[in-house]
Amino acid sequence: MIKQKWLWGILLLVLIASLPGVINRWHAESANDNYEVIIPYQEIATIVEESDLTADEVLSRLTDAGLTSVSVEAVSLEDLEKQNVLAIYEESELANSLLFTQYEGAVDTEETGYYVTIPEDSYYQNFITDHLQTEEVTVAGKPFYFIASSTEDFEVDMPFGYDQSIVDQLDAQGLMVVFRTTNIESDSAISKIVQQLVELKGDNKLGLLGSGTEVIGFGHPDRNAWLQDLQQAGYSFYTIEGSQLKGEYDLAKSAGYDMIRLHSIDVNKQTNLTVNESVDRTTRAVKERNIKSIFYHIKTKGDAEENLDEAVLYLTEVQDKMPTHFTLGAPKHFEKISVPAWVTALVLLGGMIFMYLISELIKVNKLRILAVLFMAMLAVAYFVLNRVLFLQAFALIIAVLTPIYAVIKSANGSTRIRDIFVQYVKGIAISLIGIYIVVGLLNGNGFVTGYEVFRGVKLVYVIPIAGIVLFALFQVYEISKNGLKGSLNTSVTLLNKEVKYWHVLVLMIVAAVGYFYIGRTGNSGSVTELELTFRQWLENTMYVRPRTKEFLIGFPFFVLALYVMGINKKWGTILLIPGVIGFLSIMNTFTHLHIPVSVSLLRTLYSTVLGFVIGLVFIVIYKICVHYFNKAKTRWS
């Protein structure tokens, strides 16, 4: 016991000494308090086309409501044709239109390509000739630009440059500009786009947001040079939450993870999304997931002016409901989160000590030493090979074992509330140590921006429950009572017992509950409408909502388990199985490394406090049920 206390003391000192790493992350997250709202220009243009409003009037209304930025896409000849700037004809199409006229045969159909009418505006004339390989020809007395089919990878829908007139219009409104970039096959076209982007860069030209499936230049030999030019020009790069492009990871790594996290809200795809729901999604993304940019789509169907009114309402409501410590403005990169090697080494050392303490559960010294040696091998491998995978493996082991250890170590039953509270705090404290080790190891800009992640989330949900189920079996059937040989004999006896129909039924129910439980984990889990409403109420009331599986299920059942163990140890031990859910869930909260540490701490504080209070309510309900059960039993006996 004395030796173990010394180990706990050393562990705490080691972890305290490693605090600078986590503190640096806290400061970086706290300092990054700007957010922006982007609307695509083409949707603004749609409102202008379908209403009596001018572009300046629409932009002015949106800006007054809180719009900060507008995205601009590179245009193609096809886009300019839709804007009635020019007309495009294939050689066969133009030749056919001249049949039975004096100009029949004026078009050489042997030379395939596109004939483009020359725009009246000299700006568009220069725009086209500067970016495309054109030849000016005259057909039927009318001048055309001819673009041969042999031109490198040219298509009429290929983006070839940004419309300066649109950029100037946005400048005049004081709006920031985000350029959409797409990967195209033509090397020369990309080169010219990159050159134009470098020339366009200014204080209000913030960054580059990819579209399609690939980062600009992906698969091209000059990709690195192009990206370097854009970085040196001062552009920031955006990453769309849940939609990483091909080549984006390498881009982020080369940029030192200086990426701006963006969340997209598309009311044209999610047609049932209300303004209030869009606002709630926006505020949640900014305050809970380190999102610094919201890409909001204006409705493109229905009455244009009503769609504009809805966008204005959305922008106004976002400002009203956003917490005051967030500022509407240009998004910033996270400050560099410095995690010196000695800090990582201390956290790894703390993890090895913690593993030795956890391994007391197996009560075999050789296995305890082997467990620590394995963790030491992972630590050495990380420093020798410089692969984050070894840190992720180390963190995963700590993450799945911590809830098991926290529950078993604090499973000392009592009917006294004071004793239950002490054991409850003990379990939470053990969990926080494991959580700190995971957060301390998986630290840095790569994790905060979401490019490096905790691996094995599903295992954190499954292994702790399986571990407590085994613990309960060992306790209920006293499997380990007579040493290893006795344990084997008891296990064989259990396995040889006849399987009843009700056994199968119970297993089916457990399997169904397990399937439902696992299916609800992660971001895509199904949630009922009632639960969504309850969650939103909690969020509006408490800034961040505690997880229902923690404060309504896991922690209350753990408190009840401690109480019941003071009366009947076997039944109380069985109640530890749902009780472990609270502990594994708070571990899972912190493994979402793109969520600010402060938010995860607040969420966990709410869960643990509410969970204990509701656990006391569970005890009262249990007492009432036992009272009436005993009363009924006496009456009918």
Automatic annotation (TrEMBL):
InterPro entries tied to this protein: DUF5693
UniProt superkingdom: Bacteria
Residue spans crossing the bilayer: 339-358, 367-384, 390-408, 420-439, 459-480, 501-518, 551-567, 574-593, 605-629
Keyword field: Membrane, Transmembrane, Transmembrane helix
Protein name: Uncharacterized protein
Protein species of origin: Ureibacillus sinduriensis BLB-1 = JCM 15800
